[in-house]
Write a structure and sequence with these properties.
Number of helices: 21
CATH architecture of the largest domain: Orthogonal Bundle
Structural class: alpha/beta
Helix content: 40-55%
CATH topology of the largest domain: Lysozyme
Strand order of the largest sheet: 10-9-11-8-12
Bound molecules: glutamic acid
Radius of gyration: 28 Å
Number of domains: 3
Strand content: 5-15%
Oligomer: single chain
CATH class of the largest domain: Mainly Alpha
Distance between the termini: 90 Å
Length: 485
């Protein structure tokens, strides 16, 4: 029998209320202690556990696995913040912006660094640090289609506009619809910016809206894409944290960004991250030929020597070097690759390259590295395919290339043929495929573009040399393993 049955109804209710009140007070005290008590703020807990859990999106501006390890602007900032706290990063990724914001608001992760635009609606859900970058939102169309719209309304009435679900772009369109009831668009889940741009490039949809920073990095792969107009004035990107009484981590991040900004470093990091686009830009034939005439002669003897030593076609080595650095021995990318053949510090060290900006050393190291990759590709594959596969591995990493070969086999393609693998490499960006692979997500479209560019450079260079009268009194060419093009 329940003890309370001895107590009359009113007293019982009062007693229950009292017990409930005591429990509430005790739990509030406990939470308060946990939040503010000595040595137990969220920041202290993170320091004690040694781990910072973050959410990000996979993408070229945020976080991706490059041939030389993780990269991306958000990743770089996160790394610095983790170092500042003296902890390790635990990164979780999703392309679902809703999941990211909910994850932060509900405390499943400590913060989100995902190229998030600060919007009013989002501010009700999470709190943002001071901005680290400003972007504009741009309406993208395919040039040459005569469909360049002048404003959102004409875009919506002339064609099909698609944006990422739960994005700042979707929020903005919803706001604009209040004044323009005719505005219509579709929101897609589970894709990334690159996929949307791809849809426009392939004329599957007519328009999309993306952030200017993402477009800057992706556009070099899609020369046909154009910006119709800026949809917004510059808008801020920032990291998101949960609201709540314990703001210790949020305050620390705010301090971190203020210091980074005041020291001028933030501007350098952001600028450095986008400046390499120019270096890597696919040059037109005209520019390339200009460089063949003016830059190449100085490096040609070095390229010929290294190619002969490692049993390569020097024109192929020249084409790789052009794709890497435009034959600039002082080229540098924000991810730390450097020099004529753009070697990482680690690869350079392995290859015995002591000065990466020395073109002789860089070429020798790059040739040796390329030879080692070609030798790593299974010997039953024909020589030309082995070269293209090795170059893809040079760009995306050997593990990711192997994953693409496995996917090719799953899809009944030929895992020994570059033509077949190149159809499947871009699938490494799609969750449906990369989750089943050994090495996970990779920007699989980039090695395709990389190898195809090199093939174009090789073609143009060979064509130029064959037609240049000066070549008739040829010096010896050490072409041994000439690729079949
Ligand atoms: N900045 C966008 C947002 O916060 C995401 C990036 C993009 O979709 O390009 O929704």
């Amino acid at each position: 029998m329940d003890k309370l049955t001895y107590i009359n109804g009113d007293t019982r209710k009062r007693l229950l209320a009292l017990v409930a009140a005591v429990i509430t007070v005790l739990s509030l005290v406990a939470i308060g202690l946990q939040a503010r008590g000595s040595g137990s703020s969220l920041l202290d807990e993170i320091r004690a556990s040694g781990k910072l859990h973050v959410y990000t999106r996979e993408g070229v501006t945020t976080y991706s696995l490059g041939p030389h390890g993780p990269e991306g602007l958000e990743y770089e900032l996160l790394e610095r913040f983790a170092r500042h706290l003296g902890v390790e990063l635990e990164i979780e990724t999703t392309s679902d912006l809703q999941e990211i914001l909910d994850g932060v608001a509900e405390g499943r992760v400590h913060l989100a660094a995902a190229g998030l635009t600060i919007t009013e609606a989002r501010q009700r859900k999470v709190r943002f640090t001071p901005p680290y970058q400003y972007i504009t939102e741009q309406l993208v169309y395919r040039r040459g289609t005569n469909r360049r719209p002048a404003d959102l309304l004409s875009a919506a009435s002339n064609g099909h506009l698609e944006v990422l679900a739960h994005s700042a772009h979707a929020e903005l369109l919803a706001q604009r619809k209040a004044d323009n009831p005719g505005l219509s668009w579709d929101e897609v889940e589970g894709v990334d910016t690159l996929e949307l741009l791809n849809l426009v490039a392939e004329e599957i949809i007519d328009y999309t809206i993306v952030d200017s920073n993402e477009l800057t990095l992706h556009r070099r792969f899609y020369p046909h894409l154009g910006v119709a107009f800026d949809v917004t004035r510059p808008r801020p990107l920032a990291w998101a944290f949960a609201h709540g009484p314990d703001d210790s981590l949020y305050q620390e991040a705010t301090r971190f960004f203020r210091e980074l900004e005041e020291s001028g470093q933030l501007a350098l990091i952001v600028k450095g991250f986008y400046s390499h686009v120019r270096t890597y830009d696919y040059a037109g034939t005209h520019t390339f030929i200009g460089h063949v005439k003016r830059r190449l002669p100085r490096y040609r003897p070095m390229l010929e020597r290294a190619a002969a030593k490692y049993d390569l076609d020097w024109r192929l080595l020249a084409a790789v070097a052009y794709q890497e650095s435009h034959w600039n021995p002082h080229a540098v990318s924000p991810t730390g690759v450097r020099g004529f053949m753009m070697l990482t510090q680690a690869t350079a060290a392995q290859l015995g390259v002591t000065r990466r900006t020395d073109p002789q050393q860089s070429i020798e190291g790059g040739a040796r590295y390329l030879r080692s990759l070609i030798d790593k590709i299974p010997g039953h594959i024909n020589e030309a395919d082995r070269i293209w596969l090795a170059l893809a591995a040079y760009n995306v990493g050997y593990g990711h290339l192997q994953d693409a070969r496995v996917i090719t086999r799953w899809r009944n393609g030929d895992p020994d043929s570059w033509q077949s693998i190149k159809e499947n490499l871009p699938l490494l960006r799609k969750r449906k495929w990369y989750r089943k692979t050994r090495h996970g997500y990779a920007r699989g479209n980039e090695p395709v573009r990389y190898v195809e560019n090199i093939r174009s450079y090789y073609d143009i260079l060979s064509w130029y040399l064959a037609n240049d009268p000066a070549e008739r009194q040829n010096r010896p060419v050490f072409a041994i393993a000439s690729p079949v093009l």
